[in-house]
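Hi R.,

Here's the chain you asked about this morning:
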Amino acid sequence: MFANFTALHSVCAFGPAAAPTTAPGEVVRLAAAVLGPTLAAVPGPVAALISATTCPDRLAPSLGQELAARFPAALGQVQLLDLVQGCAGGVSALLLASQLAGVYGRPVAVVLADAARRATAPTSPVHGIFGDGACALLMQPPAASGLGLVGSRSRQFPGLVEVVTIGLGHDADRLIAADSAPAHLPRRYLGLTLHPVRAARLLARAGAFYRSFVAEVGRPDVLILHQAGPLIITRLAELFAADGVEVISTVEQTGNCGAASVGLALAAVAPRLAGRRLMICGYGTGGVITAGLWQC
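And here is the predicted structure, written out as tokens:
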């Protein structure tokens, strides 16, 4: 594993062969499955746990609190930080972990988890592009050699805050259906809704955002984008390929796993990142684009 991110573990379920996720607590289950082996690789206590999801199973207790309860020996006395920022939240968690690891001088645990397949009704036209997945890793303190976070940027674009909306947590439909007669499909009303016109407007800003960022911090060798969908990734890859940047796409294997998508892509390419400059960029929910550049 390369210097910045260690003990990286991931899990994903996507495509017709994947079993449907109908049981409650799916986000916690995914997160715990990858966090356990990551924490087992820590020689000493972590400084903090940062968790990010687009949509938790329930609002309280938080995802981080539920994970701390499952791993009390490792997490019972550490700082817990929960981010619910949508698709860009995975990058925000990695940026915050880099900063905190530098402050504490100790590793920070990060877990990114989303049951994105569950977020859409089966009748939704975008249901097929989503997957369920999670990634966990240890963010190491910056090295004296200059390895670590080089720079970051985030921008929220006016008028696009509702590009993606999710009414309530994943398990809300089960509670509502139990009290409804006759039963219906509450996921149609409470689940994920994508607004295509706003999404197109946000993507139209991607080129200018990228050019402004690299003018400030330098060009990356490798670019990991939020794996929004095959058509979007193909379009953005063509946009950045002219700059000689390798754009990573795992969307055909993982689907769009929300905040976890950048972590799943990172896990796929981690063995060949040493010595390269890596940019990770998330976008979507909230009309936000967030990026960080690491020297690996």
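One quick note: The chain has a mean pLDDT of 89.

Cheers,
M.
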